[in-house]
Design brief:
This protein has 1 helix and no strands. The protein is mainly α. It has one domain. The longest helix is centred in the first third of the chain and has 17 residues. It starts with a helix and ends in a 32-residue tail after the last helix. It comes from Fistulina hepatica ATCC 64428. It holds the Pfam family E1_dh. GO terms for molecular function: oxidoreductase activity, acting on the aldehyde or oxo group of donors, disulfide as acceptor.
């Protein structure tokens, strides 16, 4: 995660759109989760096999 690069990119986009009035600009950011919140706990079962 590069916070400084993100801030620089946002400043560039703002300058491009607002100050230079060049029009829309597409910006793509890659999000990397810091922890695996979507992984389930293998010991926890919410439904029985019959359900």
């Amino acid at each position: 995660m590069d916070v400084i690069a993100t801030r620089q990119a946002a400043a560039f986009v703002k300058r491009w759109i607002v100050e230079e009035k060049r029009g829309p600009l597409l910006v793509e950011f890659v999000h990397v989760p810091l922890r695996w919140v979507f992984m389930s706990d293998p010991e926890t079962t919410y439904l029985s096999r019959d359900e």
